[in-house]
Structures are given as structure tokens and as C-alpha cells.
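re: ur question from yesterday

yeah so i grabbed the chain u mentioned. its 570 aa long if i counted rite. heres the sequnce exactly as i have it in my notes:
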Amino acid sequence: MGQGHSHGHGGHHHHHAHVHTGEDGTALPAALDTSVPDEALNPEQRSRRTLLRGAGLLGAGLAAASVVAPTAVAPAYATTNSRRRGGFLWLTGDHHIHTQYSSDGKYRVVDQVRQGAKHGMDWLVITDHGSATHAKIGVDKVNPDIRAARAAYEDTLVFQGLEWNIPGAEHATVFVHPGNNEVSVLKQFETDYDGSVKNASDSTPANEALAVAGLAFLSDQVKRRKVKDALMLANHPARRGVDSPHEIRAWRDASPASHQIAVGFEGAPGHQAAGLPAPLGPGRARGIYDNNPSANSFPGYPLESYRTWGGFDWMTATVGGLWDSLIAEGKPWWITANSDSHQVYADTAVRGPGGSFETNGRYEDPAYGGKIDITQGDYWPGQYSRTHVGSDGFSYAAVMDGIRAGRIWVDHGQLIDALDVRVSGAGRWSTLGGALHVKRGTKVTLTVDVTLADGPNWAGFLPKLAKVDVIQGDVTGPVADRDTFTAPSAKVVKTYEVNQPTGTLRLTYDLGRVDRPLYVRLRGSDGNRSAVGSLGAAVDPAGPAIDVVGDADPWRDLWFYTNPVWVLPS
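ran it thru and got these C-alpha cells back, copy pasting raw so excuse formatting
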């Protein structure tokens, strides 16, 4: 793991009719480029610029959000100078979105992209369900719609992907860098390695091996330059208990670390509106996590793993749990958050009449249904869940590189606007997903700059950050038992109460003179709901509480999480 660097600019949104290029060759989207006058923008771009101005994210004024040169007033966009300091552009996105090309979807691609752009998304992945129909028809037919959306929304990066039925396990997002072979590679992958297409859903060694072979196929397509890049992120991993710890480790290790394909899982699932209580909501489980163990489930998982905790998956929400056991090995495994948007809560659209999904590979375009549907559990991309990726620039490759590098933090309900995390010692520093290499005994400090929300979220209120937790664990190396799902050394080592209503908050934590390999990660909440973690108060005195099925308003329980930073003394 190399040393990483991050510039603390967050919350950017882009829409451009034409592009200006900075001195470093990076394209500046017009909404961010203050040299482009307002009248030169189209209505979508003007709306984006107004949003940015209202949030204080356009023009001078973000210098306080960064630990780089506090005397220099930096523009909101990471400019040439800040980029020369190793800065990143934080791009917000969603890698789990369904359309009329999914058997349980209804929206057009352009509907999801337009809504994503409206809700601040810089990048999106269209992930219709893998199936025999999709493999045969849909993966081809959706591509012109994706290309049209790319042309219509030039400042939103739209990837083509699919939701893979992992053989022997759950679902995953698989997506590739756009190019001439994006359809052919995805089509061959789905035809040869999808659990539904191959009737390979049961938890058997042969099916688990097929999943690893599928990841090897994607790695080979990149190696042979059929596609520039490919990534896999496991979706809703604890929902049905069928993603065993050894399978997750097998996916992670299926391709070379230098160009890993499987890089993480959803720290928080979509379907967050499903927990809104009846009669004005679906009255289901948040994330639709309302399952129980089955014959294919991993028997070691406890019953509480089948529920969400503060909207987050049990694997991520448990301090000292499965996610910690993965990163305690010193290997990359990242978390994300997204919408899994199929059918949006309080929407009025219904599937268009006529047609045949089996014959056409899609439903007819949506039509007005005449009533507000409060039985659906999804939000639009960016309306509630956000994944923020530190990118080298505004491009497909930069987003994929940022995801692979783990420069990711996630939040719900726009709890905070921006985040800059640095671990520093001996004149060096690293950020999310990176590793700080220092001599044993070096004094190491964690510095966190949090830009608090200063405008209403999409539910119409200003969220308030109440606390930030620092979670630390030892790096203990590869596990002997690949079904391990605990990390005994991980615990909350510091909690900061937040009393500041707006602006930028700086938190500093002294890691001392580090004499062993360790990692730190962060978590924060609005403080509305908390409980002692499942491994006890000494590990997690006030973590997320288990969500109540039928009564879990997602807007009343907001959290953010970051990926880890390692400190590796030698």
C-alpha cells in the first residue's frame, strides 16, 4: 500500500456545456469553472451552480476544509496549485442503480441519471439484474440508452455495469470502463459466470469456484486490454447470510493486488426508505433486511446479522466485526453506500402498459400512475446515500482508480458536507485507503477536518453532526481460519462530541509513538440513536442501534463512515 495524499475539497457537483482545461490538463466542469459566466450555462448547470453557491462550495472559501496551506485561500475546485500538493477532487456517486431493463425496475436510464445529477451525483453505475433475459437481450439494449445519457449529462459519468448474481452467494456490482468492448465483455461475463444464468446459486464449493473464475475472467479482460478497467463491489452482503467470510476473502484475493477486481462491499445497503413506518411508509425493514437463515446461509452468523444497524450492514456496523477482521489483515477491502434504486418512495410513476419483459428485455417507458406510492422503499441516487471518492480528476479512470485505492467515505442524509482525513508522522502523511510507512517509534497524529452541513438536505432539514468516533485496530496479518469474522483488538479509542453548528471542525488524535502496525477509521452520527456494540461497551460504548423492523425512519438516524488508513512502522 503506497502513501496516499488527499486534498480536503468535498461536496462538488458538475454540469457543463463546454469544458475549460486547467494548467495541469484537467477538465473543469462549467458549473465549477468561475470563468464561465452564468448566462453560458444551460438550466441544469445553472441549477447546479446555484446549489454550489448556496452551500458555499463555489469560489473562494474552502481553504478551511483542508489542512494544506491554511494561509492560502483555495477555490472549491482542486486547482493546479493544490493538485501539485497531492490534492484530490472528491466526486460523489452511486454504484447500484436499476432501470426498466431489470425485471423489478421501471425507470429509464435517463430518468435515473437526471435524478442523480439533480441530487448531486458526479458518477453513476447502471446495474440491471443479471438474468438469462438480461444476458441475452438487456445488456445490449441498455447500452444505447447509457450512451445517450452520457451525451445529455456530460458532467455525470455514467458507467455500464450489471448486478451479478454471485455463484454461491449474494449480489454484486460489476462494471467496466466505457469503451468499444464494454457490452461484449459484460455479456460474456454474465453468460458464463452469473449464478442465475448458470443455475449456480447454492452455496457449494463448485459454485464458489465459479465466482472466483468470473473475477479471474474480468482480470484477464483488463490484462488483455479488452477493457481499460473492471471492478466488483459486493452488494448487501449480510442481508441473507450467504456471503461467508471465506468467500469474501476468496473474491478479494482472486486477482493481483496491483489490479484487484473485487475491492469491497456495501457498508450500507440501499432501500433505506423501506423502514419508514406505516401508514405513510412501507413499514418494512430498513434496507429490506428482514430475512432469516436458510440452508445456504453461513451457520456462524448470529441472528442479529440479518438486520441493519443505523442503516448499515452488520458486517460494517460491528466494531471488531467482519469488516475489521478483513482490514486487520492489512489488505484492502472498502465500504460504499448507495441507493439500489428500483422503485422510489412517494413517486407517481408506474410501468408503462403493454410490451413483454421476457421478449423485449425491458419494460415499456414509465407512465403517470395517478397517485403517490408510499409502499416503495427506495430513494433516487444521491437523495439519501452517498459514496464520496477522492479522484485525480474528472474522468471514468480517475473514479475507478479512487475506488480501488480506497479513497472513500460515505454518508446518509447529507450529514456532513466534506471530510479530510490525514495520518501524519516524520514529515509524511497518508489518507483514506493509504498506508503511512514510518520508522518504529515515530510519533503519529490523526487530523480530521469535517465540513459541517450548512444547508438543508433532501428531506428539507439541516442535519446536525453530534459526535465523531475514532476506531483503531492492530494489523495482525492473514488469518489462519478464513471464516474468521472478528478482530479482537479493534475498538473505539476516542469520541469527540460536536457542539459546533456550522463551519469546519478540526479534530486531532495523538496515536503516540507507534511501535506496531495498526489502522484507524472514523464514524460519526447525529446522535439520535445509539446502543452498546455487540462486542461490549469496552469495544463500542455507543454505536449504531439495531433497526426496528417496521419503524426505522432513516432521516432520524444519520451516520457517516470512512475507510481505514494504515500506519506501518518498520
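noticed a couple things. The two ends are 14 Å apart (CA to CA). also The CA atoms of residues 530 and 544 lie 5 Å apart.
anyway ttyl
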